[in-house]
Amino acid sequence: MRHASYIAAIIAAAAAVSARAKTVGPDAYLYLATDEVNYAWEDISDTGSTWQPGADDKAKTAKMGFDFTIYGKTYAYARFSDNGLIAFGNENTQETNVDLTSQSPAWDLPTIAVLWDDWLITASAPAYYDTLGTVPGDRRFIVQWEQVEAAPGSPDTVTFQAILYEGSGTILLQYQDVVVTGGDGSHDNGLSATVGIRDTGGQTSGRNLQWSYNQAAIDDGMAIRITIIPEPVTMAGLVLGIGCLARYVRKRR
Question: Is 50 exceeded by the pLDDT of residue 146?
Answer without folding.
Answer: yes
